[in-house]
Amino acid sequence: MAATAMISIFCPDHTGLIAAITGYLFDLGANLGDTGFTVLGAGAEFNAVCEIPGELEFAEIEAGLASLPELADAEISIRNFSLDPIHGPTGDITHQITVSGGDQPGLVARLCETLVAFNANIVALNAGGAAASASSREGVYVIRLAAWIPPGNEKACLATLVNTAENLRLSCKWERV
Questions:
Q1: How far are the Cα atoms of 96, 131, 155, 164 from residue 140, in angstroms, in the given order?
Q2: Per-residue pLDDT reduced to its tens digit, 147-164
Q3: What pTM was computed for the model?
């Protein structure tokens, strides 16, 4: 019988990580469910909920991943995933939102609080600095959100989010998915 596992990997970032990890898991017969990857400073984090063939032990999978050259110096964790592997409707993405501008303390908190006020759920978030451009000596802080906004709350939620961003001297763009 198959097992549902949570695979978490943290390691130095470099090209080929996702291909190496997912290729290895595919070769084992694992079926990826919800999966995320992000660069964090000079590091990278990969997380996936996946169905693992029943004859495989988590320790065996972990050792196999650790033997991949791309995962030298990686922290690898595989554990049982006891929650439902299929997310409910609030895990669906209805809107992609990008907020950008000068960095300042509290940006992520203020924007997230705005969404909570409208019962919206953040499905994925990525925030960080972008390099300075030729036209600007300062870098830009960019926050990208994938969110589920309940029907009926969309217009007011997005208007409040844009207003909050403008009050913080940021730009806010969004699109319905």
A1: 19, 7, 27, 18
A2: 999 999 999 999 999 999
A3: 0.84
